[in-house]
Structure formats: C-alpha cells, structure tokens
Amino acid sequence: MSLWTIVPVKPFNEGKSRLAAHISPRQRRALNRELLTRTLAAINQAHLDAQLLVVSRDSRALDAAKRAGSRALAEESQPRTAPPPSSPNDAESEPQLNAALTQAACYAAAHGATKVLVLPTDMPNLTAEDVRAMASPANRDPQIIIAPSRDGGTNALMLQPAQAIPFAFGPDSFLRHQRLAAEAGIPVRVVKSDSLLFDIDLPEDYRLAFDNRGP
Predict the structure, then answer these.
(1) What is the pLDDT of residues 125-162, one digit of tens each?
(2) Which CATH number belongs to the domain containing residue 194 in this structure?
(3) Mean pLDDT for all residues in the chain
(4) What percent of the chain lies above the pLDDT cut of 90?
(5) Count of domains in the chain?
(6) pTM, two decimal places
(7) pLDDT > 70 fraction of the chain, expressed in percent and rounded
(8) Residue 86 lies in a domain
C-alpha cells in the first residue's frame, strides 16, 4: 500500500482572509508561512512511510515545500466566478481547493498512490500522533477516515483508495464527505482530538493559537 500525504496551500498573501481586518498583510503572510511550516513538521515527525506532496499556486509555498523535503505540485489555474456579495473570502475559494485536491490526488494515483491523506494547514496544534491516527486504516479494504472541524467542516481526510470519493471541502463538508462515502458503499471512521478539531478561522482563534504575539 502506498500512502501520499497531500497539503494544499493558498498563496501566502491570500490565506486567512477573514483575519484581514484584524492583522496586517505582513502578519497574514507570516501566519500562512508558519502554518505550513508547522504542518510539514508534524508530518515529518510522524515518520510515515509515505510521499509528501504540497499543491499550491504560490511559488514561495512550493519552494518551502521543497526545502522541507516534499514534492511540490503547481496548482492548475481555475476560472474565477464572482462571489456572492456577503460571502467570506475564504469561502469563495472552496471550488478551487477541491479542484486542487483532485489534481493532487490524480497526480498521486498516477505515481502509485493507493491512499491519500489530505492535511490542510489550518490546524496550528497538529501533532505527529494526529497524523499517524489519520494515516492508519484498519486494513487494506476501501475506507475513509475523517477528522471534523468544530463548525461541521472537514479538517483532515484519508481516502483508501486514493480517489474513493470526490473532495467536498467547505461548509458542512463533514456530513457531505460521509454522504459521499455512503453512496460509494465505503465505511467511514471518525477521528477526533483537540488538536484536530482546532483550526484558525476567526480572530479569537488566532489570538488563542499565538497568545497575542503572532507567529
């Protein structure tokens, strides 16, 4: 069995746009860079027998991935659509995220992946134990492991086989991924821990994660 861990990364100057009114552009770039660094460190500390792949439109993120020993995949551009006037900027990019993950999973499968573990960089407290828990299917049969977020989203996702279901990250994606698994007849296991549940989404999350000092 061949595992690939996929880390999707928004451009450093675009990620965490919901914090734009509360921290400076420089702080946002530093935050997104720090979140990537922490995620890659947790993955490397897990000592998985796996390939590590970062997919991004940001050359700086791809360069950081290469320095950390990861493969780097340039994200294919997607047509942009006008967002609803009231939608948060981070929510606007969900189709782009799912397209990037589809691209990365196809790339991994073409290079021999039989399972993929998707780990976004939103979880500042991600541990090696979390990574190992998400990367440990019970057997070789088709199965899916999901780590939900506090608001009903998906913070981590393991698919065996690598393209078991379409990616459906975004609001209520925890239930959407479960429904897709049920439609495909694939069993689901849910993994929860404080560090997997906690992601940076709102200003209070940022303050809690970095104790008002910033990354």
Answers:
(1) 999 999 999 999 889 999 999 999 999 999 999 999 99
(2) 3.90.550.10
(3) 91
(4) 82
(5) 1
(6) 0.91
(7) 90
(8) no
pLDDT at position 84: 42
Query: Residue 215: inside a domain, yes or no?
Result: no
Question: What distances in angstroms separate CA 111 from CA 40, 80, 98, 195, one per listed residue?
Answer: 21, 29, 20, 31
Residue 37 tokens, joined: 């660094």
**Residue 212 Ramachandran class (φ > 0 left, ψ -120 to 50 alpha, else beta):** left
- Residue 159 phi, psi dihedral angles, 5° rounding: -115, 130
Residue in this structure with the two tokens 């942009």, named with its chain if needed: 80
What is the CB neighbour count within 10 angstroms for residue 89? 13
Q: Annotate the chain with DSSP letters as a single string.
A: --EEEEEEE--TTTSSGGGTTTS-HHHHHHHHHHHHHHHHHHHHHTT-SEEEEEEES-HHHHHHHHHTT-EEEEPPP----PPPTTS-HHHHTHHHHHHHHHHHHHHHHHTT-SEEEE--TT-TT--HHHHHHHT--SSSSSEEEEEE-TTS-EEEEEEESTTSS----STTHHHHHHHHHHHHT--EEE---HHHH----SHHHHHHHHTTT--
